[in-house]
Amino acid sequence: MAEELIIAGKTKAERYENLLPQIEAVIQGETDMIANMANVASMLWETFASSSFSLHTHNQLDSGASPSWMWVGFYRVVDDELVLGPFQGPLACSRIRYGHGVCGQAWAQERTIIVPDVNLFPGHIACSSASRSEIVVPLRLNSGRVFAVLDIDSSQTCAFDDVDREWLERIAGRILCMEKMGKLPDLPG
Q1: Which of 51, 99, 178, 188 is 20 to 30 A from 14 in CA distance terms?
Q2: Is the pTM of the predicted complex or chain greater than 0.90?
Q3: CA dist 116 to 14, 44, 58, 119, 136, Å?
Q4: Three-state DSSP class for residue 91
């Protein structure tokens, strides 16, 4: 397992490209889904949460870098609602009903949702008044059933784009590789 996260790259895409193999190395030998979610949330947080500035590299990010991420975490499907899982950031909503808010909609629609301005999203759940934009990526089993969502909020509008969608879906896919190895826990429902 990696003991140190190496943050490199001046653009958002370069940071993701550097991060993905490190995530793979961390989750490769771990069989506990919660532990993997916790490490992935932490690694994403450390890589992108500082407002266009990395404490690890002391480099300003070039244009195309992610604006300030303020919350990174997972919600797990438990019966008919999403239940808070491992996260980094301020206090969060503990439970979200199916189809409610951005997370509930991503679960119901079984697709990634990017919201450039949460104030314009009908039914947005304001877990934090500081949130201005959001991306939610569903994690699906091979059967197609969503078992969790990866939720990321930013304090700036228009923080997420197709670069984030592409790389976050790849990261979600790596977490799902555990199913192929028989390492997913028994899931309710």
Answers
A1: 178
A2: no
A3: 22, 19, 28, 9, 12
A4: coil
Question: Which numeric CATH code is attached to 12-180?
Answer: 3.30.450.40
Mean pLDDT, each 10-residue run in order, the chain (189 residues): 80 94 92 92 90 42 61 95 96 94 95 95 82 94 90 94 96 74 49
Q: Is 1 exposed, middle or buried (0-12, 13-18, 19+ CB in 10 A)?
A: exposed
Alpha-carbon span 63 to 77, nearest angstrom: 36
Domain map (residue ranges) of the chain:
12-180
One-letter identity of residue 22 = Q
- Of 99, 102, 94, 168, which Cα lies nearest the Cα of 133? 102
